Structure formats: C-alpha cells, structure tokens
Amino acid sequence: MVFNSIQFTLFFIIVYILYLFLNHRWQNRMLLVASCIFYSAWDWRFLFLIFVSLTTDYLCSLKIHASDNEKRRKFFLVLSILINLSILGVFKYFNFFVSSLKVFLGCFGLNIHPIVLQIALPIGISFYTLKTMSYTIDVYTRKIEPTRSYLDYFLFVIFFPLLLSGPIMRAEDLLPQIASPRKLRLDWFYEGCYLIFWGLFQKIFIADNLAKIVDFVFNAPAPYNGVQVLLTLYAFAFQIYCDFAGYSNIARGLGRCMGFDIIINFNLPYFATNPQEFWKRWHISLSTWLHDYLYTPIAFSKRSWGNWGVVFALMATFILCGLWHGAAWTFVIWGAYQGMLLVIHRFLKPLFELISSPKSIMNRRIRFIIKVIFFFHLACLGWLIFRAHSVGQSLEMLQALVFNFKFSKESFGVILNIIALICILLIVQVFQFIKKDQLFIFKQNWMIRAAFYYVIFYLILIFGVANGREFVYFRF
Amino acid sequence: MEGNLFIFDFKKLPKAFITFLLLLLLTETISSIVIEKLPSRNCLQRILSMIAKDKINADILVLGDSFALTAFYNKGKVFSSSDKLMSSIVSLATNADVTMAGQYFVLKRYLEKNRPPKMVFLISTPFLWDFTLGKLSDNYFFSFFTNRQEIRDVLFKTKDIYFLIRLLYYKFLPSAQYSLYLAEFRAKSETTRSRMLEYMKDSILMKIGLQPERSLQEKLSEIDRPHPLVVMARASEMIRPFGGEPFAAQTSISKEIKPQEEEKPLGVPNARFLSEIEFREMSKIKHFGIYYFDKICKMLREKGVKLYYVDASATYSLFKEQGGYFISGKNFVKTLQKKTEQFLYLEDFAPLYFSDEYFYDRNHLNSLGARHYLHIFNKSLKNLVKVQKN
C-alpha cells in the first residue's frame, strides 16, 4: 500500500473520517490499528519484529529510568541496542556478511558453503530500528523521560505516515504530540493537502518518469557512453531526491491534516555548496540522528587523537551510514566517499576562506552558482556508486565518463526529457531558496495557487506514471 | 475524556481550491468533446465508436482475441474467393486484454443498436480465458466500459471498490485518456523504429552479399502487420457502406442462410457451469471469464442466436512449446460445451496450428496467413451451413 496508490487513498479517507469523529484517546487507538493494517498490507508476519523491537525498548527504557545503578542502566541499554541490532543484522545484513566472508576466504583458497537466509527484507526495518534505539539512548542520557503508556509508545514507533521511510522523528518531538490532544485546524488541513499534492507530483511525475531513463541505462550492459552516463546521473540525482522528498512531503502532509507537526526532512539539498551543508539539507532526520548518536560519541571517545579522531569519527559514521542504506559494497563505498568529502572539506575549509570573497553582489552570486554546480557534480559522482548494481559497473561507468565522452543525437532528446521533467521543480525551488520558505507557493494569492494546482494536477494525470511504483527508500 | 480541538476558520474560504475545481470541470467538459473527435487509439475504441455511430446489422458476427482480429482484417486488402457471397460478416474481435467481460460488453452494445445476427463466432486462444482481474488494463477495459450499467455489472461481479474507482476515474476525468493515447503513441513509434532499424540492417547485409536471418520478404510481410480493426472484405458486390471504411464484407456463405428459428433453442435452460474449483483444476481458466462467457451465452440465447466457439490457430513453434496449454484449453471448452450446451464447439473448424510463414509473430497472422485462414474459414462455414440445412 504505497502512498501513490488508490488503495492508500481509500485507506486514508476512511482513517481520516474516523479520526475527525473520535476523541483523542480513541484517535490514538484507531491510528494504532490503522498503522498495523497499513504495515500488514506488506507482510503481516513482520509486525512481530516491530512488536519485539518496541517492547524490548519500552521495557528497557522503564528499567533504565527506574534505576540509579549505572551498571544496571548500562546493562539494559546494551541489551536493548543488542536486540535491535541483532534483528537488523539477521534480516538485513546476514546474507551480505556471509557472502562477503565467503569471497574473503575464497581469496585464501578456503571454500565455504554458508547458509543463506531466504527471507525478504522487512520493509521499514532500518527506520523504526533507529527510532526505537534513539528512544532508549535518550532515556539513558536522561534527555527524556520514558512514557508509561505502552499504546502511546507503540503508536510512536508504528505511526503509519512515518513507518516505512521516515522522517525518523525523535521521541521528544513526536511522543508529546501523541500524548496530548491535537488541534484540527482548517489552515493546517489546507497546508497538509498542499504538501500531499506537491509530494505526489514529485513522486509520480518527476521521480517515476526519471526512473525510466535511469533504469534503462543502469540495466544495460557495458560499454557505456560518457554523455549517456552523465545525463543518467543527473536524472538519478533528481529521481532519488524527488522520490524521497516526495515521500517525506506526503508524510508531513498526512500528519499535518491530522494535527501532527512532522519535521522537514529535505531542505533544498542541491543548493548546498559543500558536503557539510548538503548533509544539513539532505535526509535531515537521518543526518541529525547520525550526528547525535554516532558521530558525537565516536569523536568524543577519540578526542585524544586530535584531528585524526575527527577523521575517524567522520569516516566511521558515513561508512555506517552507507551500510544503513543497503547491504552491498556499493553503499559502503558511497558512505566512504561521503565521509571523504566531509574530511576534505573540513580540512580545506580554512584554505577556501583564505581566498578573498568577491566584493560585488553579482560576483558573489556567480561564485555561489559555481559552487552549487560543482558540488552537485560531486554529489552525482556519489550517486553513481550508490545506484550501480555492482562496484564493477560503477567503475565501467566512470571509465566511460572519462574516456568515452561523445555526444549523439539521442543525448539531446534525453536532455530535453530531463529538463521538461524537472523545470517546474527547479523554478519552485529557486523561489523557495530565495524566499527561504518551503511553503512559498502555498502562501501566494489564490489565483497563483489555483493555476499551480491546475498545472500540477494535469501533469500528474496525463504524464504521471500510474500503478503506484514503490518508493526507492523502501528498500533501505 | 477530552474531545477534539477543532479550530476551523471558515472565513478563510478555499478560493484557490474552488477555482481549481471550476477549471477542472471546464477542462474535463472540453476534453470529453475533444476525445470523441480524436482518432481511435486502439481497436477497441474503433469498434465501440463504430457501434455507437453506425447501424451494422451483420449476418454473422465474429468476436475474439487478437488472433481473430488479425485473421479478419488486413489494411483493407481484398481477399478473393471463388465462392459467391451474399451475407455480411463483421468482426468485432479485439484482443485478449479486453477479457471475456469486454467481449460481453461489446456484444451487448452491438445488440442494443443492431438487429441480432444469425450466427456469432467466438474465435479465441485459451489466453482470453486466462485473464485474471488484476490484469484488466486501463487501455482495454477501464477507460471504455464506463456506462452506468457496465459499472454496476462489474461492481456486482467483482465487489471490488478499487475497480469501481478506476471506472469512475475514466468516466469523470476524460482527460486521463490522454495518457493512454501517449502510451499507445510511444509504443507504436518504438515498434516502428525497431522494425525500420531491423529492415535497414538487413538491407545493408544483403547489399554486402550476406544473408539476413530471415528473408527480406518475410520481414516486409511482418511490417505489413494487420491493422487492428477487423474484417475480411471482398471487392465486388454488396459491400456495406461504412463511410469508406473497409469494414463490412462478404464471405463465401451462400445468401440463403436463414435465421435458425425452427432449430432447438440453444442450450439447456438454466444450465449451471462447473464449479470454479473444477475449472481451475482443468486449466488456469478463471471464474471471471466463465461468468462473462455465461452471460454472452444467455444473452444470445434470449435473442435466438447461435454461438459457435472456434479455437484460434498458432504457429507450430508456439503449439510445440505450449501445446499442453492449448489442449487443456480445448478440453475445457469441450467440457463446458457438454455441460451447458449453450454453445457449439467447432473443434475442427480450423487447424490448431499452421506453418510459420503465415504468421508475423507466434500467434498473429500476417496478410498471407489472413488470406489462408479466411479461405479455410469460408470453406468450413459453407460446410457448416450445409450440414445445418440437411
């Protein structure tokens, strides 16, 4: 039941009607049941995993909170983290590690025949595991107090708009909204509808159409043409952005309609001029999670190493970030690449700042545009590794980018296709960036909004990809 | 217990939304007119618009899947026949995507506007039966069968609100059909491009003295793909005036075919089909197909029209590969016929497979094949009429 399907539309209409007529207590109960139904539409058996994960964290956090004995508190924290990571390890990484071990031992002439688990990846496992882990850690660090209500906690983990692909809301932000009655405001409802509509446009019109261009090249065998690869990377950069940002916007919109305030997950990431800024704008809920629960503790523990400690923390955090995205070496290398960019940026930053800043506004703008374009290409290079089916394919494509860069007539067709798909997004985002407001269109006068809705609606209706294609981040 | 906290400021009217709705209404009204004027995007649309516009009043009606479609039409080419023809045969064959339900709706619309034919032939591969609900397509089902009665019928049978929404979507948003036009256009240009490329490649191979995999003539006959609308035609007399369309035609049936009033009514009244499970065991055939086939039979029986079921032919290679499936389909129809007696199964009307030269792919005839098939069809039809008379 993806957000861009008729089934989900029906599901949400029913849920929303019930929601409007119930009081707060029953609203939460109904949302809990609806979320279970929503998840069961994928595979009801994996509900059991969520149940194990959240019950463990609920009980452990209560034990942690109740105890003043540091050892006992640590024991329950470690227990909770171990159980969560074990579930993730078995269901997401077992086959990857086993096959990697087989290849590694094969290098030394040792042939093993390991067990391979024939199980599908439980959808959303990476997201809810981070959510539940952060809850226990926050209770341990006394940042929050654990909730006594099991149902509230259950809903915090399983709340259907956020269940499959985030944003990874923290307990301190979401739990109070669950625990106390929510306001149902008409202006929030309009805002929610706008976000849902814009999210659907990003997904159905932009991402799913770009996916056709991307899939065609990535599913084709080598040799590749450099221009073709470059254009495909541009297409993929916008595909993955619109796919995920579209999902996040729909999730925010659904939440907004029901009176929830869900955090912004993407803040115009391709306007970033450096990797640090990029990670402040891209998948914000994940990057802040990684910052708070991985980077900071590692950097703190290695503070005696000086700059090397920072390098180590950055590389470790981003390699794990890559691994979080998927159990494949391409993701690990992508994570390492992102870590490397951040390390380089961190240490070369003073050098960049030494170069005098241009005086005139025009020069500053040009400089900014060059920086944005340059960093966009660095990000695209990362996406090449991220999207490739194997390390070998990414190397072949890189080779084509350098040694086989030839224009053909077909390339112009692809360029026009990409421009046609992303031009509205770019125009909207330029205004959003200038005005520093993601709801810029929503705040325009009614005539502009009506025209905007009209254009968007017909682009979705006529050129959108039907049949509810899955969101890319569901695989993570 | 605390209640809801509603803060609905109705002073802030959703002007933008209302304007958007008005624009939407206007566009859809215009679209519903524009779409009527656009050229048909597929065989089903062409058939349905023809049924809506013209009186056809065929003597013999052919229903079926894409095999029947390719057999009875070939870009208006004329097939000679030594027999004298007088009766008109009209094909409303479409393709398997239309499903048995679609065949029923097409026939129903036809019968509402025309006098009943004397005979109806359903020519089909087992694929027509094998379409499950999930495979119903927008382009060959949901965007067309949107009459109130049809919607009610599908909803009654499927009890699926998802189907209802898809039907209503096309009923109230005719603009959605533009995307189907685009898809058809893309598919056609892709096919044409790949065929032209193949043709060019072969021409080059021949120029440098190499032999392509298949002869150029064969390729050309493939390019000469039958147009997806119907009908065999004969040059001379009695071609029905359908606005220049090579639509109505004459076959080698003698004029003397008369309505079969004196014959026994078709089938056993209130005959029940086998249970769904029994059918599933026999082949992969789904209940949805059986249900609508039953409705076709009943509708024709009420009108006193005889229904003949004819197996579609395939290439030898396809038959070799999926022979079991074809045979199980055959057995299924045979059993169905024995149990219900609502239609006649013409098992040996045409061979189950032909030589590959008659096909442009594994189960669609090329122009040569269409001519050959019609020859057999005419002959068998003539025999059938003779037998019936005797």
Question: Largest sheet of chain A at a glance?
Answer: none
Side by side, the strands of the main sheet of chain B go 3-2-4-5-7
Q: How many structural domains of chain B?
A: 1
Second rung of CATH, namely the architecture of chain B: 3-Layer(aba) Sandwich
The counted number of beta strands of chain B is: 8
Main β sheet profile of chain B: 5 strands, parallel
Structure description:
The complex is a heterodimer of chains A (476) and B (390). Chain A has 476 residues and is an all-alpha fold. Chain A folds into two domains: 6-182, no CATH class; 187-475, no CATH class. Chain A has helices spanning 6-21, 24-43, 47-66, 70-107, 125-140, 150-158, 160-163, 171-179, 186-218, 226-257, 275-281, 284-301, 307-325, 329-354, 361-387, 391-403, 409-435, 446-463, and one strand spanning 183-185. Chain A is globular. Chain B is α/β, with parallel strands linked by helices and 390 residues long. Helices cover 50% and strands 8% of the residues of chain B. Chain B has helices at residues 15-37, 43-53, 66-71, 99-113, 138-142, 148-158, 161-172, 176-207, 216-223, 276-282, 287-303, 316-340, 367-389; strands at 5-7, 60-64, 89-91, 119-124, 306-311, 314-315, 344-346, 353-354. Chain B is globular. The relative contact order of chain B is 0.16. Residues 74-86 and 214-283 of chain B have low confidence and may be disordered. Strand 1 (183-185) of chain A pairs parallel with strand 1 (5-7) of chain B.
